[in-house]
Fold:
Amino acid sequence: MSKRIGMEIAIAAAEAVALCRPEVIAAYPITPNTHVPEHLSDIVAEGRLDAEFICVESEHSALSACCGASGAGARTFTATSSQGLAYMSEIVPIVPAMRLPVVMIIGNRALSGPINIWNDQSDIMYQRDAGWISMFANNGQEVVDMAIQAFKIAEHKDVMLPVNLNLDGFQLTHVVEPMEMPDQKEVDAFLPPFKPLASLHPDNIVSMGTLGLPDIYNEACKARDEVLKKSRKVILEVWKEWKQKFGRSYEPVEGYKTKDAEIVLLTLGSMGETAEVAVDEMRKKGVKAGLIRLRLWRPFPFEEIRKAVKGAKVLVVLDRAVSYGGPGGPVFSEVRSALYDQPEKPFVMNQIIGLGGRDVPVVDFVKIVEKAQKALKTKPMDDYEIYGVRGS
Amino acid sequence: MVEIRWHGRGGQGAVTSVEMFALAAIEEGKFAQGFPSFGPERRGAPVAAFNRVDKKRIKVRSGIYQPDVVVVLDPSLMGTINVIDGLKPWGILIVNTAESPDKVRKQTGFKGIIATVDAAHIAREELGVPITNTTMLGALMRATKLVKMESAEAPLKERFGRLAPRNVKAMTRAYNELKISKAA
Structure:
């Protein structure tokens, strides 16, 4: 039976991962995800989990060790943030290329510089195109649920791809709140042991991670793109099964009061919860506001986005990262691209908020809805704006 | 929803306070958040930590700027930072000090409810150290009636093990010894 607990979300994430019985964990501590591997190492030391915990000397080694372990057929987990993820980046695209179902929790944090340990999503956006399945949690419950779902999705025989689960650093990692924690029996019934299609073993020699000459590299890339897109089917199946077994629903794109909404905010990650409060406030004032929360970042849910924004007049995409010198935030760029060839579409504007830990209280979301109200009449000159910048 | 801001100095356990208070509320079936002022804190430097408590699920995930309650773990902060910054005029200010609530009222000019307790003295007697984070939980529970003291016992036991009974005693004393002055 699931149990209602109060716990720091990073610790709860570690407990949820432990319920998945990972066999190898390799990680290096970095703020703000530190409590995830730290607590897992406690669980291993206490004898509650029979896993090899590899204390590596860097994140580059952490993900390299994960590659080896996953290749040998072990259920494998790692966690990191920001500079740690950046330091892994040489190995990041190799994991999906080798079809290794490693699960990684990222406590999202700004990339340096200036040096900053606080939350935004620039770390994962920097790794966006590597070929991982990538998803975002809004709250502690979703972190617990999605950590367990991640292994099932990653290890499915039609997927065999790594999954990164993103939770906003501090905003989620460091908050104590209530959650329903499934028990071991429930997780065992949901998540069967990992059965690799091929594994490294001295008695049955295979090669993994070989050289791909120009005559095969194209095809390898195509295969990688195809399998990532097709993983969507498995993701939806796993979420459906989760709903049946645990009663909590997960969708690639989730709408809140969008039905008759003229102005729709689109969020990724924990700001989706605060934005909901702002939508409620605006509704009370008679403004037809709504909210779309994007959960699945890769493979990108183009169809669902098109469906979700139907009827909206202004869509405000809220990004927590900048694509410097580019079209605005990375989510904005994707969403506008999804809508480009649609005969009827909302005006899409982009507000980049909450960079490097800048707090975004309810009142800021309200102000952003008010900006969108103005855009109903007069479209703004700029495609995107870094919200709340002083001196501009 | 009730929003609480705790003031302390790095090393005084303000983060443990918010954790214990949130866990006690959750223990009662309520919804609660406990979180630090995000970032690296230095020992001795002023720090803040926060709680939200509600009967329904809490959605807001931003900082707290207009708290209903302020708890001050270290009286030396009173002259250093404006502890009542943003505190709602009808709110509650709870201070660890040997001084009376009236003295704190003169010092701060705050017109709402003021409560004081000599938590440092209690902590020194019961715990042997002047760390007042668990002691001040008792003061907060008495002043706000948000959470029952018994509900903090399990989380304190989980966190402090064999030292838990002493922390429970310190908390109980603060609950009983709190001096409350009604809104001016």
The first helix of chain A runs from residue 9 to 19. Chain A has a mean pLDDT of 97. Chain A has 13 helices and 15 strands. The two ends of chain A are 54 Å apart (CA to CA).
